[in-house]
Write a structure and sequence with these properties.
This protein has 14 helices and twelve strands. By secondary structure, the protein is α+β, with helices and mostly antiparallel strands. Strands 1, 2, 3, 4, 5, 6, 7, 8, 9, 10, 11 and 12 form a twelve-stranded mixed sheet that branches.
């Protein structure tokens, strides 16, 4: 076997350009498959790390109507705002009980509304509004582009100040000058103290969808939505392994404070982020198979090229085959020699394709800001697949060589 491999390399390097052109289809096919799988795996990992824990081991516990919960279970979507659903206040003992669990690192109690209309002179907007505490901005950092953020003492105060996103600024202040301007919310004037970047971590709460947002201090929220506005909870786990468990424990504690009548109308729920992320990963894997199937066409073309060159090689070495057979070489020896050469040729192309694919995936991942992941099964599978291509498309030329008659081979010119 080692002698066959040595002879194969001699034949390949004796015709370098021809061998390189023959391997080109295999190299391109394997490189495309490896790059596609690596990029898809990196994208899946990025989505998983962003969705599971919203990028920082945090999960949202939401107060929702039971109709909305049932509808989600039946694959129907009920849009129902929770801002007008009366919710009992969350007891401090419940918060401390949740915070006491070893897997819970931090908790934020905040409010949310989709219904408040914001006015500035003749311009208006329907932003997504949040009544935030200091911990909320620690769990979901914002990136200020103008002005300042809330100061520590302002979160629990009645100061009528707000932070607006770039999208809200563009709708309310087309001229761009927003800081220190007044915005009317539910008939109450609020002063803009800062503008933050449109895309923030909190967007992952809504599937990465971004819309204009306004943040108000939690202490002034009752002026806008009343004292019975439901409180949402963001729970940060100590590690990514405990995110779902921490969220479910928080929901259980919060629901234990509700009466049976209250739970018939609404209750605290937590989304199964791991299941959502796994569904997205499954979709990405199916997409990778589709693209990989398309890329495999180039492998088919490369295999045909290998068969063609091996037939040419058999023709060129007819006298060599005749001499070996005249000296006693068996049919299976000749068959194995040429089959080994085809496998070595495609395996070498597969190895070069793997290196090219990994290099391309590394460049693309760095350019688009995704993690670079080397898929070991794809690498091993790509190499094995290239060897199988060599066996399949090299068998016919090898079989032809092994069936040559010594007399006819020796007479060949």
């Amino acid at each position: 076997m080692f002698e066959h491999i040595r002879i194969s390399f001699q034949s390949i390097f004796a015709h370098k350009l021809r061998s390189a052109l023959t391997m080109l289809g295999v190299i391109i096919g394997i490189a495309a498959i490896i790059a596609i799988v690596s990029i898809i795996e990196g994208q899946s990992e990025a989505l998983k790390s962003s969705m599971i824990g919203l990028g920082n081991n945090t999960i949202n516990v939401v107060y929702e109507s039971t109709d909305m919960i049932r509808g989600r279970g039946e694959d129907h979507y009920y849009y129902e705002t929770t801002s007008y659903m009366a919710a009992p206040p969350i007891e401090e003992e419940t918060v401390e009980a949740i915070r006491s669990y070893p897997m819970v690192n931090q908790i934020s109690l905040y409010h949310e509304s989709w219904n408040t209309q914001a006015y500035h002179m003749t311009n208006s907007s329907y932003p997504q509004m949040f009544g935030v505490d200091e911990t909320f901005l620690e769990l979901f950092p914002i990136y200020m582009v103008e002005g300042r953020t809330f100061r520590p003492g302002e979160f629990d105060s009645k100061n009528q100040i707000i932070l607006i996103s770039e999208g809200a600024r563009d709708e309310l202040f087309p001229d761009g000058d927003a800081v220190n301007q007044l915005v009317d919310l539910s008939g109450i004037p609020f002063r803009v103290v800062g503008v933050f970047s449109e895309r923030t971590e909190v967007d992952w709460l809504y599937g990465g969808w971004s819309q204009p947002k306004i943040y108000v201090p939690k202490g002034v929220w009752p002026l806008l939505e009343g004292f019975d506005s439901p409180t949402q909870i963001a729970v940060q786990a100590t590690s990514s392994d405990h995110i779902q468990e921490a969220g479910e424990l928080a929901a259980i504690h919060l629901n234990s404070d509700l009466s049976p009548y209250e739970m018939e109308a609404a209750q605290y729920t937590v989304a199964d982020m791991e299941a959502i992320a796994e569904e997205m990963a499954e979709f990405n894997r199916a997409f990778a198979l589709l693209l990989g199937g398309i890329a495999s066409i180039s492998l088919l073309v490369g295999g045909i090229g290998v068969m063609n060159i091996m037939l040419v090689s058999v023709t060129e070495r007819t006298r060599e085959i005749g001499i070996k057979k005249a000296l006693g070489a068996k049919r299976h020896v000749i068959l194995l020699q040429f089959l080994t050469e085809a496998v070595v040729l495609t395996s070498l192309g597969g190895a070069l394709g793997i290196l090219l694919g990994l290099g391309g995936a590394k460049v693309i991942s760095s350019f688009i800001g995704m993690p670079f992941i080397i898929s070991l099964p794809a690498v091993i599978g790509g190499l094995l697949f290239s060897m199988i291509v060599g066996i399949i498309f090299g068998f016919l030329p090898s079989f032809k060589a092994s069936n040559l008659q010594p007399v006819d081979a020796l007479r060949y010119e």
